[in-house]
Structure formats: structure tokens, C-alpha cells
Description:
Blueprint: H1 2-8, H2 10-24, E1 29-34, H3 41-54, E2 58-63, H4 74-90, H5 122-139, E3 142-147, H6 154-164, E4 172-178, H7 188-194, E5 200-203, H8 209-219, H9 226-236, H10 240-255, H11 265-268, H12 271-284, H13 286-298, H14 304-311, H15 315-326, H16 339-347, H17 351-367, H18 372-380, H19 390-404, H20 407-420, H21 424-441, H22 447-451, H23 454-458, H24 464-476, H25 480-490, H26 498-511, H27 534-548, H28 552-562, H29 576-585, H30 589-603, H31 609-626, H32 629-643, H33 650-665, H34 669-674, H35 688-703, H36 707-723, H37 734-744, H38 748-760, H39 767-778, H40 783-800, H41 803-819, H42 825-838, H43 842-847, H44 857-867, H45 881-891, H46 896-903, H47 907-921, H48 926-932
Parallel strand pairs: 1-4, 1-5, 2-3, 3-4
Helix pairs in contact: 1-8, 2-3, 5-6, 6-7, 8-9, 8-10, 9-10, 10-12, 12-13, 12-16, 13-16, 17-18, 18-19, 19-20, 20-21, 21-24, 24-25, 24-26, 26-27, 27-28, 27-29, 28-29, 29-30, 29-31, 30-31, 31-32, 31-33, 32-33, 33-35, 35-36, 35-37, 36-37, 37-38, 38-39, 39-40, 40-41, 41-42, 45-47, 46-47
Amino acid sequence: xxxxxxxxxxxxxxxxxxxxxxxxxxxxxxxxxxxxxxxxxxxxxxxxxxxxxxxxxxxxxxxxxxxxxxxxxxxxxxxxxxxxxxxxxxxxxxxxxxxxxxxxxxxxxxxxxxxxxxxxxxxxxxxxxxxxxxxxxxxxxxxxxxxxxxxxxxxxxxxxxxxxxxxxxxxxxxxxxxxxxxxxxxxxxxxxxxxxxxxxxxxxxxxxxxxxxxxxxxxxxxxxxxxxxxxxxxxxxxxxxxxxxxxxxxxxxxxxxxxxxxxxxxxxxxxxxxxxxxxxxxxxxxxxxxxxxxxxxxxxxxxxxxxxxxxxxxxxxxxxxxxxxxxxxxxxxxxxxxxxxxxxxxxxxxxxxxxxxxxxxxxxxxxxxxxxxxxxxxxxxxxxxxxxxxxxxxxxxxxxxxxxxxxxxxxxxxxxxxxxxxxxxxxxxxxxxxxxxxxxxxxxxxxxxxxxxxxxxxxxxxxxxxxxxxxxxxxxxxxxxxxxxxxxxxxxxxxxxxxxxxxxxxxxxxxxxxxxxxxxxxxxxxxxxxxxxxxxxxxxxxxxxxxxxxxxxxxxxxxxxxxxxxxxxxxxxxxxxxxxxxxxxxxxxxxxxxxxxxxxxxxxxxxxxxxxxxxxxxxxxxxxxxxxxxxxxxxxxxxxxxxxxxxxxxxxxxxxxxxxxxxxxxxxxxxxxxxxxxxxxxxxxxxxxxxxxxxxxxxxxxxxxxxxxxxxxxxxxxxxxxxxxxxxxxxxxxxxxxxxxxxxxxxxxxxxxxxxxxxxxxxxxxxxxxxxxxxxxxxxxxxxxxxxxxxxxxxxxxxxxxxxxxxxxxxxxxxxxxxxxxxxxxxxxxxxxxxxxxxxxxxxxxxxxxxxxxxxxxxxxxxxxxxxxxxxxxxxxxxxxxxxxxxxxxxxxxxxxxxxxxxxxxxxxxxxxxxxxxxxxxxxxxxxxxxxxxxxxxxxx
Length: 941
């Protein structure tokens, strides 16, 4: 650092050299060197004294201290000690011995240089000091240098002023170094001394970026980038103490074996820099330390008046300290931005002191009207307080944190609020809020929090919205007996609870319809008022869709829920999954998919696993109905991981059903069976999710050859849906599933009756469901009658965005064309393959592979799934993989050059492969190849 200082301070040192030269020529001079705290004055002090001593100048030095400011002549005593030190060091060989305790003939001193007493006459002391210095200067040039002169005692300053007034004819240089005195009023004598008209005023600047670069070049094995140097300068404000610490931190980082330069200065900052900041603060004084402690504790921008009251520092003085802090990047701004610096500052304080300061901060913030969360941050660091104002603050802060999705923070506030509650009513209300927070944070593990509040509700100790939320939490966890008790107790026709009553009724109608008839007093059906909360409107929309199909009013209610979706509070996210379900069950799949993408992007900004998991679960259902099976599995797995636990719940059951159905559709029956191992609780079959589970299990049984088990599941599903008045095929098409099972059993008439029964029901705008029924009906007809049914089904499916079902319809349409010898078979098959590929439905692509016996998509898929044979490539047996790829593309109508481009081979290679294909298949040309196979695009192509 010494060499770096010399280069950075070269101009200033040249000016000080001029001062020494001028004094050596017999012309006394005064120079003042000012600068900020820890800017390098002490280093400059040492450099100056060394250079002066090496030039033969007698150096008398003193370093003043704030602790000795009120000790008379304390600095002068140091100067006298310097004289004695010179005498001791030179001995008899020193002709001008100024350190004698008695008059010395060699030194020429006639006055003993002993420290004066505080009771001595100031003028007499000043005269004696002047005589001693005069006698010393007569023998050799003298340099008197005082560091931190702002802390020098007034008595010594008077002596120095007396000397300064008479030094013009002496070979004497008086150099006074002074820092910034923020919180002290300097004595007038210091002002007279520093600002004499004859004095030379020098200013010690902080390091420039170039100076820091030189410092780094001396210390580091390799020169840091300019970006890092600039960041070091900003962080340290050019303060040498802080800059040296930053450079040392980078040296240690390099020595640790890290090959790469830190991405930022912050990344390399450690305890060395933190300690340097503490040292800097302590040099500024106790008030600066106290201010830094307050800033570190508040850790947020705060009103200057409040900061003044908390720190006990006068507002005007506070401005001065803030000005000093603003020059140092680590301390700049209304808060300390470097976490390590904050921790180091607070780490110096005792626990009692931190706690006391936090209490004062919390009380001042509360009294000044600060937001509850700002106050609660400090209350958490204090511990339980039984003061009247504390509990409302904690509960309000928790509610706001829940709104914002800051769940861990909300849980901490509620835990402390529970300890601060002074009576049971308050404590129970906090426990209800706590249960809600735990549900959002970890839905699978929150069941006990709800069950534990049943008795207080029945005893009338917990009422209102807190009690209704507990009832809904019990319903979520399938604790139906307890939930029914609570709902019956709360259903007392209280008009104030009307909204909560309606909301719970709609929740039960759409989520747990089998529980409604267990209530001793039915919940009255109603509509959602226009002014109701978005959650209530979403519940109403879902209940209407399940009852009436694609009801336009219900769809409008769902769409309204999505307005202003972006950046909405977490509390308003709760209605979004239900609104998505309403669109999904109304066969508005494209709209549901669009809104899901918007919601999923926004949910990433919220730390609310419960709502995110519910959204992912609905997103999985949407992906399943869009035919994106990989997306459906991925989303359902993510949701199930968050929602599943020791106890089943409605959302985890829905995710499980989606996984079973999606894996079955992918022909991955081992994966599907894994999710069927756990025995579902009977309560599950009182829920909407239970219907999905029955249908998914039925599809799995059907695909694995357990037709009678599948038939039982589909029939039970239909029985429950009819009983609950939810017989909408958009929920689960149980009739089509049962019809498929009867077809497997050879009961075509029964299958047709079920399909026609579904088609006879009012359409209710369920486009996808109607198209699926048309598809199923077509498969029971002769080829000629299939065509109009399949074309109508495809048109409807294309309209509503059900691309997977559309691909399946096209595949069967191509087979119908083939059986009729219609030339449209080939282009239709190509289109089906492209659509299936876009849906990530690889199994459907494979079902379209060449086969000698055309089958429907449904029967072909199930046969392939049961046998584990997903190819069905009898026509291409005996061909190599390369030959097979070329043959399949040729059957699609691709020219040889197009095949070569797709397979990244030459045209000659394609021709050679085709020649071998013709020979192995016993055919002579491409036309015979087309006649021998049914044309589709395989996965490998």
C-alpha cells in the first residue's frame, strides 16, 4: 500500500517537500493537510516524517486523540518527548542535544524540555516552548507535525499558535493534519491556527480508480478487470482502509484456488472487509457507530426524523453523518445494501442491546404509522410481548404476507402472535389464520391444524370466517364427519355469515357433492352477487358448469375471474384453479389453456406452494384434454409431489387420477399401476376427484384386459354422477367408457344404446363431448356410414382445440377411406400423424404404423398396449432399420430427393435402399409398395 500511496499522492508529497525545503532555507512555513476519516492521513504522516528525517530535519511529532482532548498540554507532552527521544538516540555525538533534562553545552538548550503542568501559566508555557524550538532550530531544521489536530487540547493549540505567529524567520515547518469533525465544535484557537493567511492548505483526496488499480497491481497475482476496479472504487469510496481490505479479499479469493474472477466485488467480500468497515465507523466516532447500527437494524429506507429519534442524533448532525456515509458505497443510501456489513455491525452489539434497539424501532415505526410488516420484522427479533398494540400488528402483518405469498414470513408472525395472545379467543383466531397459512405452505401436512379446531368451533369459541375456513380445510382433507358437524353448527341462518355460507355451499357442490346430503340442514342454493369476491364467483361458475354444461353465464363468470390476473395478491389466486376447471368442463379447452399459461407465469412470483400445486393440477387436466400427454404427466407429478401426504385430499386425488389416465393413454401401464397401489379411502368417492379416479382406473382396467373391472368402474361413476345431478360428459364421459367395455365383450347393442343416450342429452354447448360421442358411434357403424360422423366429429374437435381426439378421429377416418378404396386415405393419415406428433402422442403415431389389418385407433391402441407391441409392422418384417425408414417415407408419397433430405443421405442411397426393399417384399415398384401397406408416418421417420 505504501508504494501505491506514493504514486497516488505524488503531487501532495511534492508540495510537502517544498514546505521542507522552504523551512530548511530559514523561512518558517505552516501547512495544513485535511481529508476525510481513514483516507490515509496517518500513512502520509509516516511518509512525511521518514522523508524529513532522512533529509536531516529534526522531527517532533504528536498524534492527538479524542480521549485526551480535555487533558491540558497532552499533545505538547508528546512533542517534548520527541525532543528527549532525539537526545537519547544521538547521545553525545549529537551536537544539538535537545533532550537533556538539564542545560547542555553541546545542545545549546538553556531550558529544560519537560512537560508543563496544567496549573502553569499558559503564556509562560508558550514562551518556554517557543524558546526551546528556537534553540533547536538554530542547530538544524525542525519539522513539527501533529496528526488529528482537531482532537488536540486547547492548551497545546495555544502554544502552537504562539509559535506560528513567530516562525517566519526560523528553519521550522509546522504541518497540521486534521480530519472531519462532525459532531464537535472545534475551539476558536484551532480555527485561528488552521486558517492563517500565510498557511498552505493541502487536501488529501480519496483514491481514484487508478490508485486502486495500482494498489491491486501490487497485491494481486493478476490485475483485476476495469469493471472490478470501478466496483472496488464505488464500494470503498476511494477510502484506502476499505480499498486495501477489498484488494486483500480478492487476493484470498485467488489463493483459494478459484480460477475465475469473482462475478462482482460483492461475491469476494468477506470478514476482512466487514472488519475494515467497522474500523472506519469507529474512527468516525460513537455517534457514527450508533447511526450505522440503526441503519443495519432497520434495513429499509426510513424517515430521517424517525432515524434521528431512534439513534438519538440531532437531525442536522444526522445529515452530516449521512454525507460521510454517502461517500462509501458499502454505507451509501438509506439502508446498508451489503448483508455482510449489516451482520458485522449488529454482531458487535450485545443481545440485550440489539433487542432493546429493536423494541424502540418497532414502537417508533408503529407510532409513526408504518406498515404492519415493517413493524413485525422487528417484533419477531424481540420475542413475545404482551402489549396491547403488538397482537394486531402481527396479525395484520401475517395477513399481508399471506396476500403477497410470503408464507414462511407469515408463519413466523403467526407463531409469535400465538405467544402474544392474552386470551383464548385471540389465540383460537390466530390458530385459524395459522392453519390457513400452513395449508398454503404445505397442504399435505396441514390436516391436523384444521381438526384441532373442531371442538372450539362447536363450543362457540371460534366463529365467523375463521370457523368457515376451518370447515373448508376439513373438506379438503376428506374429514367429512368432522366437517359436517362444523357446517351444521355454523348453519344457523345468521345473515352476517350469508356470504360464507353461500361460498361453502358452492364449494361442496363442486368439490364434494356426495357430502351435501349428509347435512342435517341443507345449504340453500343461491347466486353469486355481482360485488362478491373472485373466489365466490369462480366457485359459482364451476358449480353451474357441472350442473348445466357450457352455461354462457357460468363461462362469463369464469372469464371475469381472470381479468387483472397478473400480479394479483395471493388471496385472489384461490379462485383461479376453479375458474380454469369451469372452462375445462365447459369444453373451452383452448381458452383454459391460454389462461393457464398466464397464471402459471404469474404464479412463479408467489411463494404459495398450495395454490401453485392446485394450479398445476388443473393445468395437467387441461394438457390431458389437449392431448399433450407429456405435459400432463409432468404437471400432475409436480402437483402430486406437493399435495400428497399421509392423508388423502381432494387435490392430490385429482392429480393421481390424471397421472393414471395419462400413463394409460401413453401405454405405460406399469407407471399407471404404481399409482393404483394405495387403497383409496371410501370418502374419496364422495368427491368430484373420486369420479376422475374411477374413470381413470376404468380406462386402465380396459387397456390391460380387465374388462369387467373397467365396466364396474364406469357404471359406478355413472351412478354417482346421476345421483349428484352432475351427469355431464365433460366431467368424465362414463357412457363412452362403458360402451367401449361392452364392445370388448361383444355387446354392440348395449354400446350403441349408451352412445345414443349420451347424444340424446341436451348439447349444452359441450362441443368436445359431443364430438367424442360421434366418434364412438362411428366405430360401431359400417365404413360407409362412418365418414359423415367422423368428419363432423373432427370439425367439432378442431373448433374446440381438442387436438388429441382430433388426431384419433383423423386416423380412423383414414382407415375408413382405405377400406372404401378412397384416395383420400393417404393424405388424411399424414395429417393425423402430424397432429398426433404435435400433441406429443407418440403412442398414437405408433398406432398408425403400417399394418396388414386396419383397425380403429381405440382397438389398435389397446391391443398394442396389452401385448406390449407398439409397432405392428408386419409388412416391413425383414427390412433393416434404414430400409424401413425409406420405405415408410416412400409410402407417404415423398420423392426420392425429399426422402434423402429428410434422412440426411444421398439420393443414390435412397434408390439403393428402395431396390432392396422391393426385392425383400417381392414387389417391383413404388405403386405396389403403396398397395401393400397402409400409409402413415412412423415415429422413427
